[in-house]
Recover the amino acids of this structure.
């Protein structure tokens, strides 16, 4: 059996210590990798998107209670669920007077954050025959929830929801919106994929 020199023994010891150290780092990273919890909104609990919550007052706490000047919460339109309606109740103030084009004359969003455009093949003779895309400009939206409340049955399909944008959220230990939320909809959990 060969005998280790002092230099070799020190080399083994150093590598062992490094491996133990790496194991520690790996364990730490593993803990961090699992520590992916972030503030999220449960759309089934948020009063603005909750199905069946009709004729109730809009909750704007997501817009008013974030510590950031422009809330980390934004409205997001999930396009596969959007009906691409001709008269979208989240885009138009449907109670406003009808203009010469037959459409409501006012928009719902107080920040003019929603863009409307006809998509696909366009029927020049009948605009009601076309599909429309509604795109939310996240640099303008403050998460006030008005469009979310409006895009709900029976007028809408519930494709717009409020979501926390994790690239701007400070991930406060005690989120002030979660404290203010009347529906307990603001929770710390793994972000949806
Ligand atoms: S949440 Fe408010 S600010 Fe944002 S798009 Fe909807 S209505 Fe506009
Ligand atoms: S964690 Fe902080 S930054 Fe993020 S939404 Fe809540 S209050 Fe705003
Ligand atoms: S505070 Fe709660 S109920 Fe109000 S808009 Fe935000 S998630 Fe919805």
């Amino acid at each position: 059996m060969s005998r280790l020199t002092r230099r070799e023994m020190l080399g083994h010891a150093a590598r062992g210590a490094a491996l133990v150290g790496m194991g520690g780092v790996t364990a730490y990273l593993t803990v961090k990798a699992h520590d992916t919890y972030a503030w999220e909104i449960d759309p089934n609990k948020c009063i603005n998107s909750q199905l069946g919550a009709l004729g109730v007052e809009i909750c704007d706490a997501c817009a008013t209670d974030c510590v950031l000047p422009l809330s980390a919460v934004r409205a997001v339109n999930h396009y596969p669920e959007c009906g691409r309606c001709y008269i979208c109740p989240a885009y138009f103030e449907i109670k406003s007077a009808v203009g010469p084009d037959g459409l409501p004359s006012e928009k719902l969003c107080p920040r003019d954050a929603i863009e409307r455009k006809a998509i696909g093949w366009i029927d020049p003779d009948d605009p009601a025959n076309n599909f429309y895309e509604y795109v939310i400009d996240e640099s303008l939206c403050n998460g006030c929830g008005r469009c979310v409340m409006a895009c709900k049955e029976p007028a809408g399909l519930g494709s717009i929801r409020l979501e926390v944008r994790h690239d701007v959220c400070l991930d406060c230990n005690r989120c002030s919106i979660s404290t203010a939320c009347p529906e307990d909809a603001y929770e710390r959990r793994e972000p949806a994929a």
Remarks:
- The mean pLDDT is 84.
